[in-house]
Amino acid sequence: MASSLPVVTVLCPAGVDGADAPAGLDTLRDRAEIRTVVAEDLADGLRGADVLFLWDFFSSAVSDAWHAADALRWIHVAAAGVDKMLFDELIASEVVVTNAQGIFDRPIAEYVLGAVVARAKDFAGSLSRQRDGVWEHRETRQVRGSIALVIGTGAIGREIATLLRAVGVEVFAAGRTARDDDPDFGTVIASEDLAAHVGRADHVINAAPLTPQTRGLIGAEVLAAVADGAHLINIGRGESVDEAALVEALDSGPLGFATLDVFAAEPLPADAPLWGREDVLLSAHMSGDVVGWREALAEQFLDNARRWLDGEPPVNVVDKERGYVPRT
Amino acid sequence: MASSLPVVTVLCPAGVDGADAPAGLDTLRDRAEIRTVVAEDLADGLRGADVLFLWDFFSSAVSDAWHAADALRWIHVAAAGVDKMLFDELIASEVVVTNAQGIFDRPIAEYVLGAVVARAKDFAGSLSRQRDGVWEHRETRQVRGSIALVIGTGAIGREIATLLRAVGVEVFAAGRTARDDDPDFGTVIASEDLAAHVGRADHVINAAPLTPQTRGLIGAEVLAAVADGAHLINIGRGESVDEAALVEALDSGPLGFATLDVFAAEPLPADAPLWGREDVLLSAHMSGDVVGWREALAEQFLDNARRWLDGEPPVNVVDKERGYVPRT
User: In what residue span(s) does the D-isomer specific 2-hydroxyacid dehydrogenase NAD-binding domain sit (chains A, B) (predicted)?
Assistant: First the structure.
């Protein structure tokens, strides 16, 4: 049965009772035909669809169903990183891709702030001693005046810099091009020169999208060049860090501690050597996921959909070649 | 043998090789006779002494040796809290007491900031799961917009308020007198009304000195009135919190988590029920002790001693009746 309304297909995770759909879709029903599907039905759902909302934001199902995308004009992804869903035909197509830029900036920056302070105050060491019933006074470090290097100059990296600066941390960044006048970072070094500059930092924070340039960027050479006892924080993508080299740098120095929210394989495999280490704080890809995040992601899509239905261009448009939303 | 120089006695902890003295005392030797003693020799050391420097800042040896204090005019304590060393005869005497106000403000405020963020992001839960090899995504909380109640309006409480405000936490305080126009806190409630107001706060932070008014202040009534899941942080003195009521409030609610750096008995006894709990982060009275703290404490005394030797009044004078340095 033909519909005169534009078609919005929503790819949902398979939930307990069918598709686990975002809140508020009903508010679009007078202006669009809404199809909620799970991954195995995506091809059917894409036929004739104008818009695809990837509510199941880790899915890579789109490339498998791409042959059915006969009318698609726009894909919105409920995530900041779009690396998992980009593929050559999509990149070459006219389909616009937008993402969830903005939703995760502050929560992730707070997670990084917490990691920086928790490391300085050795909360992991205190929790370990508490478990074992050990009372042991130690000297800890001051946060103010310590130095952080933020790898990645996107919105999340900028929020991290703002929050760390607010508590007296000195910040510089690494990005595609070196410059000295960045409004948020001041000094930005070129990522290709990372090994030459990383030794200045007490805290090395990966906030870069996963692209060909950032895959493996924090490898053996960079990890060997960090300051003695330095702290690596990864809230970007696991594939940007060479995990074997990371373990080696923890075991044999110079790295002192790692706080990791993302991994090359997720969930982290049971035999991964990162489990159980006292010098690692790991969490389950959740640094940006504060109470209300799903509602915020749904609302952000609905806002963007209303713009699109009004004939306006959607916001947060990804540069598909680069793999992220360029700074405007 | 009589000396024409003023006598400065330094009470030191017993170290591996005799007394464990502060750095830089030699710089006073042309202007004062310096005696370094340990607790058992304090009475001998106090005879004829003009100045006592309590480098062993947890010592309560002064009251035992007080009978020998025949010339004493000034005691400097290398600590922020002076509760351990105040006693009736000292309070009634003309002896001036000064403390280490200023040295610990920022390090302790950073510890509190770390505790606030670590709780919001459930780092303790992540470390526990990591130890057990459990990958489990959870939703965490946003720090910005949460509410902190700082009990104690001294220099440390003010630094805590400043730092928490810098990351978007809403702060109010409890102090001796209620007011609405405090420059750092805005609203200050009267500590006697704590139970009526504590329920507004996500984070309840004790930064009060130990005085008759604050001993047991955070007892069963207050702990029963905190918000569901609230977080208690104690960096003041252990005796301000009723530890049995604290355990009860953790076990049966409403308290969600406690970060504790101070305890009624220190070291915390091996059979204390706080050990081993997943909903407590405890540390060994070290929240202010960052690398360089001993040097900073020694330098602060030397600066004050030079003022005193120059005939100027020393700074950081404790109101002995109140038990802390009043705000100027």
Answer: 114-287
Alpha-carbon gap, residue A12 to A5, rounded angstroms: 21
A:87-116 residues touching chain B, CB 8 A cutoff: 106-107, 110-111, 113-115
pLDDT tens-digit profile of A77-114?
999 999 988 999 999 999 999 999 999 999 999 999 99
- Give the closest residue to B113 by CA, choosing from B4, B21, B23, B233: B233
Please say whether the beta carbons of B109 and B156 come within 8 A: yes
Q: How far is CA A161 from the centre of its chain?
A: 16
Burial B27-40 (b: 16+ CB within 10 A, else e): ebeeebbbbbbbbe
Domains located in chain A, CATH noted: 7-102+291-309 (3.40.50.720), 105-282 (3.40.50.720)
- Copy the structure tokens of residue B148: 């902190």
Nearest Cβ partner for A114 among B123, B133, B144: B123
Tell me if residue B285 is catalytic.
yes
Q: How many Å is the maximal CA-CA distance in chain B?
A: 73
Dump pLDDT digits (tens) for A11-27: 999 876 666 889 999 99
CB contacts < 8 A (A, B): 162
| Structure token pair of residue A170 | 């000195």
ipTM: 0.94
Minimum-distance CB partner of A110 among B121, B128, B267 = B121
The set of residues, in sequence order, having a beta carbon less than 8 Å from that of A252 and lying 6+ positions away, is none
A278 close to A128: Cβ distance less than 8 angstroms = yes
Alpha-helix runs per DSSP H in chain A? 42-46, 61-65, 88-92, 105-120, 123-132, 155-166, 194-197, 220-224, 243-252, 293-309
Residue of A nearest to B119 (CA): A114
Alpha helices in B78-154 (DSSP H): 88-92, 105-120, 123-132
For residue B117, the chain A residues in CB contact (below 8 A) are 110-111, 113-114, 117-118
